[in-house]
Design goal:
The protein has helices spanning about 15-35, 50, 95-105, 150-165, 175-185, 195-200, 205-220, 225-235, 240-250, 255-270, 320, 335-345, 370-380, 395-405, and strands spanning about 40, 45-50, 65-70, 85-90, 115-120, 135-145, 170-175, 275-280, 295-300, 305-315, 330-335, 355-360, 385-390, 410-415. The protein is of the alpha/beta class. The longest helix has 20 residues, at about 15-35. The radius of gyration is 26 Å and the shape is globular.
């Protein structure tokens, strides 16, 4: 059987050009988030299957790459269902592993704990532009901070990073799961149907208000409730005035503190932001993960259909491991999508020093090599990138290729 050259569907090989950008983005992430006090951690790529199927990952739990039991534990004859055969799976995000990590190590961690985690995750998803079955995620999370200091810090850190990567005029959309529930309650939807209502609402940007209304009525919800619900959205703007107006409309259905917190987050971010972006209140923002309990947010960049990052508060997740409630909030940047956009705009990684190519003609005496390599070493000490390579017959083509890689200076060593 012939071996296959192409990677597995939904996964990809990475070229040197892309790797240069990936490495640069990783450096910027570590430098920027480190300046905000986040500490790097790492968790295994394999997680306990019980944790992955803990009903906290939403639709992602349908996309798990499961791992068979090994050796004596694998009992094919007595297995009655698939779950009898597996005991682990590849992680589909970094949040579930983080909460397990925190639960296991909390006594040895500072409080609150500000974590930075980067690593590959796996989802048996349908591949498309910017979406793969194996991809890098990058999360920052604050655990043990119950106040909106966490939300403000996460938004400022993430927006600072995106700005440093030369993105402008992007938008951070913000909402609150408590606001979503208050709007549903005010409209008369039964509490046990909230999740279904939110799933349909999440399609607003694709099918519009009329499409949302049609789907809600198709599910059997009263026309009066549907009309009352959608009328709320018509009354609101995407700014502080929209938050204030929503509180007026909902009255006692919405806790005063929830509305005030939303105002404070928006005002604080606008007051001190360093990047060029807008923060907008978006009452249609849902976020798919069922573990969110409070404020939620997403980043949208012009030219990319979909978010390039998102997160929110998930105060109940750690408690499922420890039995004790622990406030938690996180923001995940869409690493792969950011890299894709930088590649598409032919982004050039800033160089601290020049890139020099030493081209050695075939036949140069080997006695000269120590001196050539010593000269290259001295140039590297000065901050330059130096590539020592043999000169090809088609020297012009070789130089053109190296110039495409960013080399701007060439030094040639001939045999005579």
């Amino acid at each position: 059987m012939a071996l296959k050259k192409k990677p597995v569907t939904g996964m990809k090989d990475i070229t040197p050009r892309e790797m240069e950008i990936r490495d640069y983005v990783i450096r910027m992430i570590k430098d920027t988030y480190g300046s905000f006090g986040f500490s790097s951690i790492e968790t295994p790529c394999v997680e306990h299957i019980e944790n992955l199927f803990s009903k906290q990952g939403g639709e992602n739990e349908k996309l798990i790459f499961k791992i068979l039991k090994r050796g004596e534990k694998l009992k094919l004859e007595s297995a009655k269902e698939e779950m009898d055969l597996v005991d682990g799976g590849l992680r589909y995000d970094l949040t579930v592993p983080l909460t397990r990590y925190y639960s296991n190590n909390a006594n040895n961690l500072p409080q609150p704990f500000k974590a930075l985690q980067m690593g590959n995750v796996w989802r048996a998803d349908r591949p498309q532009r910017g979406r793969y079955r194996q991809f890098m995620q990058c999360d920052i999370d604050i655990l043990g901070e119950p106040s909106i200091l966490a939300e403000i810090e996460l938004i400022l850190a993430t927006s600072t990073l995106v700005g440093k990567l030369d993105f402008e005029d992007f938008t951070i959309r913000i909402n609150d799961r408590k606001i979503l529930k208050a709007m549903a309650a005010y409209s008369g939807f039964p509490e046990e149907s909230y999740d279904l209502v939110f799933i349909i609402l999440d399609k607003m940007d694709k099918i519009g208000a009329e499409g949302v209304a049609a789907e809600l009525e198709k599910e059997g919800f009263a026309k009066e409730s549907v009309e009352k619900y959608l009328h709320l959205f018509e009354e609101l703007t995407n700014d502080l005035a929209g938050v204030i107006r929503l509180k007026e409309l909902l009255g006692d259905y919405l806790d005063d503190k929830v509305a005030k917190d939303m105002q404070t987050i928006i005002e604080s971010v606008n007051a001190v932001k360093t990047a060029n972006f807008k923060i907008e209140f978006d009452p249609t923002l849902v976020r798919g993960m069922s573990y969110y309990t409070g404020p939620i947010f997403e980043i949208a960049i012009d030219g990319f259909g979909g978010s390039v990052g998102g997160g929110g508060r998930y105060d109940e997740m750690v408690g499922k491991f420890t039995g004790q409630q622990t406030p938690a909030c996180g923001f995940s940047i869409g690493f792969e999508r950011i890299v894709l956009l930088l590649l598409e705009r032919d982004y050039q990684v800033p160089q601290t020093g020049g890139k020099i190519a030493y081209l050695i003609e075939k036949g140069v005496s080997q006695d000269r090599l120590p001196a050539i390599f010593k000269e290259a070493a001295e140039a590297r000490k000065d901050g330059s990138t130096v590539c020592v390579t043999m000169m090809k017959k088609n020297k012009k083509f070789q130089k053109d290729q190296m110039m495409a890689e960013g080399y701007t200076e060439f030094k040639e060593f001939f045999k005579n």
